[in-house]
Amino acid sequence: MAERYDAIVVGGGHNGLTSAAYLAKAGLKVIVLERRSVLGGATLTESPVPGYKFSVASYLVSLLRPQVIRELDLAKHGLQMAPSVGTYTPHWDGYLDRRTDHADTIREIRKWSHRDADNYDDFKQTVTDITRFIRPAVDMPAPDPYGDPKEWLEYAGLAKEFGHLPLRTKGALLDLITGSAYDFLRRWFEGEPLIGTMSASGIIGTFLGIKSPGTGMVFLHHYFGEIDGSFREWALPQGGTGAVAAAIASAAQSFGAITRTDAPVKQVLLRGDKAIGVVLESGEEVYGDTIVSAADAKHTFIDMLPAGSLPTDFETAIRNFKFRGSSAKVNFALDGLPTFTAAPPGNGHLLGTVSISPSPNYMERAYDDAKHGHPSKRPFLDMLIPTMTDPTMAPPGKHVATAFVQYAPHKLAPEHGGWDNIKEQFGDLVVDTISEFAPDFRDKIVGRQIMTPLDLERTIGLTEGNIFQGEILVQQMAFNRPVSGWSRYKTPIRDYWLASSSAHPGGGIMGAPGRLAALEILKSKRGEA
């Protein structure tokens, strides 16, 4: 007779592994089924160029919840992170180099605008106040406005705190949620490289321009993060982002969870309206009392369930859930560090992020191309050289550079013929963009890996290549994620749960959807939900 589990987790990305760890820690018999030969999902380190390690998709950590780090004791399981020190923005007329040292940052900003330097502290305080207010919502299930009123009790403290916020902070919060990243930043700043760089937080993974309403919400989402209690700090995991998934997997296994790779799930098995197991593409059937999907909403509800399983209105809502992949990744193996034309002495500016976002107009024009189905002729790039802090990712004296690229629309205009036709051309475009500011960059390249939106979809399983498993839009957040009335990880199928970034509070290397889903499942098993 086939072995039976208390919980089957479909998908071995960081959220699936997090759910498995919490369920196993509570004493459940858990198995994780991952379709690829390696765990991690988009939180992945691989070596497509021999001797060089790439963070293939995700590349920085900030949103990973401190509860997950603490409660799973990830440091004991090998997780080490080094801070990403500042952001360097090359410009045609110089550069902006914002470091963690506050006085140095103010001096850098003052080079471009005295007004911006004078306003910078006020901006930081306002955003910090907003973040401190709203951050608890990231660590609680979203209340269902159509469900049990008791769910709102968890938010009573948040509502009380909102009443105590200064009026100007309330106004800024509402502006962020409903407006654009650009308009929000213009309240304080005027300098080209400062606004261009900071507005990038409003478009990452989103098919909108910096001046589009809704990008303020994306901007806010990226400010939830912290490292060691410090807001808006980013870190590089030692060994690449795959080290995050490896640590969580190790924690899950230490609690007794079983992980299986090369085990793609074809369909969820149902008995009436109840999930009872899964069937793998090999034909093997695995049975469990609870099925947890860490796949995105489309895979969870459209691809893995038998046709006709869902209520019509729910299925319609899932089919209307916006993915709209808009970004790509290009990873480089280098035989030396690039030299930027305009940069401070030494290589300190390469310890953090290199942001090719020289002006708001540059950023908005990049979106103009994408609106018509074209990769941006001059794209926004967020580039890191992780070997500056972790030399183990390349041979001695060599380096790795990883470039997040936007815009790269999943749906291309017909004249391109598809991503496979223009993949290498796109990689060359990225090289040209970096080389505009660092002319020797192309000469340093000894290998590269291009991950188009189509590659992210085919290889990692991200629908339309969307890195957040659904866009971070205000209409797709909180109690609307993924479907209004179904935000608390339950689904219309009994004992079938959603624990991916398609659920509240959204995407990024966060672990919150996985953790919160597991806690809700455990409450349900105790008869509390």
Quick synopsis:
The protein has helices spanning 14-25, 66-71, 102-112, 114-134, 156-164, 167-178, 181-186, 192-199, 215-222, 242-254, 297-303, 312-319, 360-371, 419-437, 441-444, 453-460, 512-525, and strands spanning 4-10, 30-33, 45-46, 54-55, 81-83, 87-91, 94-98, 226-227, 230-231, 235-237, 258-260, 265-271, 274-280, 285-293, 327-334, 353-356, 380-384, 399-406, 445-451, 496-498. The chain has 529 residues and is an alpha/beta fold. The strands form five sheets. Strands 1, 2, 11, 12, 13, 14 and 20 form a seven-stranded mixed sheet that branches. A seven-stranded mixed sheet has the order 7-6-16-17-18-15-19, with helices on both faces.
